[in-house]
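cron nightly-structures :: item 1 of 1
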Amino acid sequence: MKVFEEKKGNIFRILSEAISEGIVIVNEKQEIVTSNEAADRMFGYGPKELLGENINLLIPREYRHIHTQQVDEYMEKSDPRQMGHGRDLYGRRKDGSVFPVEAGLNPFEIYGSKYVMALVTDISVRKGQEREIIELNMQLEQKVEARTKELKQTIKELKEEVAKRKEAEYKILESLRKERELNELKTKFLSLVSHEFKTPLSGILTSATLAGKYTETDQQDKREKHLKTIQSKVKYLNNILNDFLSIERLESGKATYKFDTFPLSKVVNEVIYNANMLLKEGQRINYPQNIDDISVNFDEKILELSLTNLINNAIKYSPAHTLIDVEVIKEKEALTIKIKDEGMGIPEKEQKYIFNRYFRAENALLDQGTGIGLNIVKSHLESLGGTIIFESEEGKGSTFTITFPNKNTTE
């Protein structure tokens, strides 16, 4: 077997001596079966001195365990590839010195035995040149940095001067913008108040006049109907005024909150009771299940305002003979309430504006409304650590979901 290996080694040597790069061929035991003169010279060995040695002799000690595994893989896969895959590789000379190399591995088979041929190149010169380039680049960067620092100082001084001028211009423009916005808001507010107050006031006047005419005992039902209309319209106007007051308190930073612990059913019952007076023919509110044992630690007025706004909107923007579903989801430290309707829904292109103040969707312009309710609800909930989100599809309905912190979910 040794003679056979020597014959193959002679064949390998004849083929490799004409190549200027170092060539080292190992068998399956990772024993060197041949090396050309370039490889011997590169690693500091004499002719045939490497024959029979383990390839680890040419590998620095700290890389040997990785190298052994890689050679085994190359033997198994039998496909040529560049060794290292981007990592720096090093060889070890006879005198123990370490130097950078590049190595391409080529597995092959002769007479039923597997071998790996390593084509090794000493890249010490190139690495030295790379270091020189890096040092030159560092020097250049330092010079550039110094020049840049000087330039930045000059630019900073110019910017400060420009900033002062821009600040003066901005103050003037901002003052004009705020004045223009204020005038626009005043005009919009007056138009809104005029429209939203005129219709219910007209209804109140009409109902009051008609109620005064029904003086007979058998006309009591008609009188009661108009009295309820008056109550409803007055409540509507009162809600609008409360909304305007909420906006003023929010904008001035005067909004105050009072946390109390109270039964959730107390607020839900009151809101739904009042909402029942607004129901259209055939409309029905589906009362939430299993809420009698839920205790809430929150601002009661804000919760009532939020539910009133969402349920009243569901009634207003839904046709007759539809269902408004109220669902309560109790979590560990939060409470979620969903109000789902079967109404007109919100056009997709307008959904991003739905919480903007005074905004009203195109398909809702004919219904009464100020466009400030959702904005107020969102502002209050977010101030108290809560959220409001919605899902809607035009013509199919909307689902509004409010969630707020609540550590006392049971009494």
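cron nightly-structures :: done
The longest strand covers residues 98-110.
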